[in-house]
Specification:
0% strand; rod-shaped
Length: 66
Amino acid sequence: MENNAMSYDQAISRIEEIVSILESGEKGMDELSVLVKEAAALVKDCKRKLKSTESEISKALEDDEA
């Protein structure tokens, strides 16, 4: 599934899954590299979504005060 198609909660769940896999030590170096890159992309996407949500909330609160 492409990162942008995931909800925030789905992305967090996948990150947790990846961390669990990494902690298990059962994957080879090539797979670990792919998983770390996937996790990094998911974290970046989550940060973007959080910033967007924060901006929307701030705007909504400003509109209420006007």
